[in-house]
Every structure is written in structure tokens, then in C-alpha cells.
Amino acid sequence: MPGSASSANQEKRISEGRHFEFRGSMSLNSRFKILWISFTVLLFDQVSKQIIRSSMTLHESIPVLGNFFRITYIENPGMAFGIRFGENAFFTVFAIIASVAILIYLFKMKGDHLLARLAMAIIFGGAVGNLSDRLVRGRVVDFLDCEFFDIHLPSFDFFFIHFPGYSLERWPVFNVADMAVTIGMVMLVIFIIIEEEHHHHDRPEAEEEKGEMIR
Known about the structure:
Blueprint: H1 2-33, H2 35-55, E1 61-65, E2 69-76, H3 88-108, H4 114-136, E3 140-146, E4 151-153, E5 156-158, E6 161-163, E7 166-168, H5 176-214
Antiparallel strand pairs: 1-2, 2-3, 4-7, 5-6
Helix pairs in contact: 2-4, 3-4, 4-5
């Protein structure tokens, strides 16, 4: 019957529309859920900084594991781990742009890339943690002071460029946000390596299937 066929097609379109709407809402909800990780990192970072600010004076240092690990309260106008090569306004603008870019990329990533999305969420939480310090105080609170290893690079000349050398007697003081960004970057590197391995394994199979189809 034409009428029953038309009614069946209409019901099918309505069902497909509801299914698409449900999948869309589920996908959006899952993408928002990953931000809870970012919020947890941000909360832990800000609470730890507030404890340091309220219980220590600037430049005070408390040994925890002798000289290997200390709690040292400093305020850093530069980037993570004390890196600085410009004005404070530059770092603030850079941090805002980077945070927005990370958030956009996080929402555009596929749901099956769980490790990459988790890494980006951790990085985003750390980036916002240090950014909030810059916006509110103009400086970032650092307090984790560890003696990992020393770095000594001798001076040398490369063509017309003179490198004066570099020495690091103690690792720069850092905070929870710096740790989050570093951990997230390591996770991203692991994800890229895994994806490359899968890509190399899948390529011969795809070429073999293509050859069989041609034959």
C-alpha cells in the first residue's frame, strides 16, 4: 500500500533522527566528561599553591628528603620550570592562545583516541592552572624543588655562532601544573608511537587486500 509504505518511511526517518540525536548528545556528554580530569588537575594545583602561599614566606625552603627534595616557595614570572625569554604579558597571551587551542583540539578528537584525549585533558588542566596565576597575580607559584641531575654543556663555536655553554646545578623549582603538562606531553608521545606502530602494521594488510581485489 502506498499509504502504509509512506508511513513506514516516515517512522524510519523519525527513528533515525532520534538515534542520531541520541548519539550526538552522548558524544557531547562524553567530551564534557573528559574535562573533569582537567578540573581535578586544576583544583589540585590551585589548592597546593594556596597552601604554600598561606603557610610559607617567599623564598623559604623546607627540607623534606634532605637536599634531594625540598619545598621552596618562589614566584616565577616565566614559563614552566622557570624558563623565561620575554615579558610577562607575552607569556599570558601565549598561555591563553595555547589553552584555547588545546580545548578546541580536545573536543575535535575522536572518542576512540582515549589516551590522546586523556593526555590533552591533563595538559589543559595544567595550562589553565598556571594561566590563572598569571591573570590573578602576574606570577606563577612554584614550590617543588628536586635534585634530579646536573647539566653541564661546554662552550663551543659552530661556524659563526658562539655557544657560551650552560650549567644547571639544581633542577628548576616547579609546581603541580608543570607536572601535569609534562606528564600529558609524555602520554602524547606514547600515543603517537603506538599509532605509528599500528599504522605500519595495518599498511601491509591493506596493500595485500588491495592486491587481491585487483587480481
